[in-house]
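Lecture notes, unit on protein representations.

Consider one protein chain, 204 amino acids long.
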Amino acid sequence: MIVTEARDGIWRLRIMRPEKANSLTRAMLVALEEGVAAARAAGARVLVLTGTDSVFSAGADLDEARAGLATDPIWERLSAAVAGFPGLTVAALNGSVAGGALGMVLAADLRVAAAESGKIFYPVMKLGFLPQPSDPGRLAALIGPARAKLILMAGARVTMEEALGWGLVDRLVPKAALDAEVEALAADALGAKAEHVAAIKRMI
């Protein structure tokens, strides 16, 4: 289930399936894609992607992955929608993020993580699949090719502290302060004209 929370120019899309470690079904991925489109249509200045409880997302639902979800183009469409959002996009990592769920995180402008726990990993090679097409390039652009290979080819499980040092995560804060940190980072984008925000994003 995906819960949309819209307040004061910030749209939050929250992955809410805690009993399954927020693993993603195809229907949930479609709901996320539609949520990004709705936020864009509404003129939201800031889009936040987050999870529930102690996990951002464990990636694909295993039953659906075996039935074809692992290679479904919906993953790439969602990442493209996040990357193409004209405002500021923030992945608020309340906990671990794994597998294909990392794609939307890599596509966001900023990544803020809870410090207490959680790891980032993408065991795609071990499972016999290729990563989504845009993920390796985005990952290497953030942390360099060798560290990208550590994650995608050597199965590294990166702690949030390591991720901060690598540049995979931009801020590390106590979990209780995660929402406040996101709002602080969003303040300038919320106070600027939408076209100004979009222009600076295009320049970068």
